[in-house]
Design goal:
The chain is an alpha+beta fold. It contains four helices and five strands, in the order βαααββαββ. Helix 1 packs antiparallel against helix 3. The longest helix has 21 residues.
Length: about 130
C-alpha cells in the first residue's frame, strides 16, 4: 500500500497559513484539484485556529502532517496550546467568525481533537 506524506514544521505566526497551503501543492497530481482545494481550505482553518488560540509566540512551532493513501486522506495539525472543547455553533455566536470547524464538519468525513500534552486537530477525507 503506497502512502504519500507531507510533514511540515511551521512558525506559529502570520505566515503559517500560506506556508501550510503551499506545502500541499505536491499532492495535486495524486488527489486532484477539487480535493486539494478542499484540503487547502480545511488546513487553512486548522492552522489559523492553532495560530490564534494556542497562546503561542511566533518562536513556537506547529506541525502539519498529511498522509494520502489509496482510500484515505488524513490531516493533523499539532500545537502546544491548551486545547479546547468542541461545541456546536449557536444563534448567539459571532456571525463573522468561528466558521472554521463548521467547515471541517461539513467537508471532512471525520474529524476530532486530541489533547495530551499537545493539541492535535485532525480530519479525514475518504477517497
Amino acid at each position: 500500500m503506497n502512502t504519500t506524506a507531507v510533514r511540515l514544521r511551521l512558525a506559529s505566526g502570520p505566515d503559517a497559513v500560506g506556508t501550510a497551503r503551499r506545502g500541499l501543492d505536491s499532492l495535486e497530481r495524486e488527489v486532484g484539484s477539487a480535493t486539494l482545494n478542499d484540503m487547502r481550505l480545511l488546513v487553512s482553518e486548522l492552522v489559523t485556529n492553532s495560530v490564534r488560540h494556542a497562546r503561542s509566540s511566533e518562536d513556537d512551532q506547529l506541525e502539519l502532517e498529511v498522509s494520502v493513501s489509496r482510500g484515505l486522506i488524513h490531516v493533523c495539525v499539532t500545537d502546544h496550546g491548551p486545547g479546547f472543547e468542541v461545541s456546536a455553533r449557536t444563534p448567539d455566536d459571532d456571525p463573522g467568525s468561528g466558521w472554521g470547524l463548521f467547515l471541517v464538519e461539513r467537508l471532512a468525513d471525520r474529524w476530532g481533537v486530541s489533547v495530551n500534552g499537545t493539541t492535535q486537530v485532525w480530519f479525514e477525507i475518504e477517497r
